[in-house]
Amino acid sequence: MSRIKFTPLSPDKPVRIAVIGVGGAAQIIHLPILSEMDDVELVGICDLEAFKVGRISDKYSVQGFVDGVNLLKHTSPDVVFICSPTISHLPLALLAMESGSHVIIEKPVARNLEETKRLADFAAQKGLLALVAMNLRFRQDVSVLKIFWMPENSANFGGSVPAG
Questions:
Q1: What is the pLDDT of residues 138-150, one digit of tens each?
Q2: Alpha-carbon distance 111 to 6, whole Å?
Q3: CA–CA separation, 62 vs 26, rounded Å?
Q4: 3-state secondary structure (DSSP) of residue 84
Q5: What is the dihedral angle through the alpha carbons of 59, 38, 36, 93, rounded to the nearest 10 degrees?
Q6: What is the distance of C-alpha 72 from the center of its chain?
Q7: Predicted pLDDT of residue 146
Q8: pLDDT value at position 2?
Q9: Which residue in 29, 60, 97, 120 is deepest, having the highest Cβ count within 10 Å?
């Protein structure tokens, strides 16, 4: 894998974000948070289920699409969240990156290591970011728990830190 040469997005404009796949992760985690962020413009959503697209696009006052090609063509997002079933992660991420968008991909990233390497290599080749959605890492309760698992704190709680 080659090293990425990343050009930062403009700090003067909001980051244009589209979401592909509006199932549970998108509806419970991503869309509510993204819609409240000042430096984000939610520009479009996409899902194969037209009814779901209509309902969610109305809720967030955003354009809705039933195919990724039209989403990318009509919204020109800076970043695309891939929240669809795992089998579609590789083709959708490649499509988004081919159009010039960075991607944030729900776990699991791909079906196997070969697909994951292909994603990483393509992102590096295009000078784009392909990130794994690690949203729990930043939750306050998880941050507090990490304090207790730090090696320097383990003796205070009568336990040891798991290896690794």
A1: 556 656 666 666 6
A2: 26
A3: 14
A4: coil
A5: 70
A6: 15
A7: 64
A8: 43
A9: 97
Closest CA to 119 of 108, 134, 106, 109: 109
User: For residues 149 and 139, what is the distance between their CA atoms, to the nearest angstrom?
Assistant: 16
Segments in the chain below pLDDT 50: 1-6, 157, 159, 161
Query: What pLDDT sits at residue 100?
Result: 97
Task: Read off the amino acid at residue 65.
Answer: F
Q: Are 104 and 82 in contact (CB under 8 A)?
A: yes
Specify whether the CB–CB gap between 8 and 34 falls below 8 A: no
Q: Which two tokens stand for residue 136?
A: 């729990």
Question: Furthest-apart CA pair in the chain: how many Å?
Answer: 58
CB–CB of 65/53 below 8 Å?
yes
Could you tell me the CA-to-CA distances from 63 to 86, 89, 124, 137 in Å, in that order? 24, 21, 30, 30
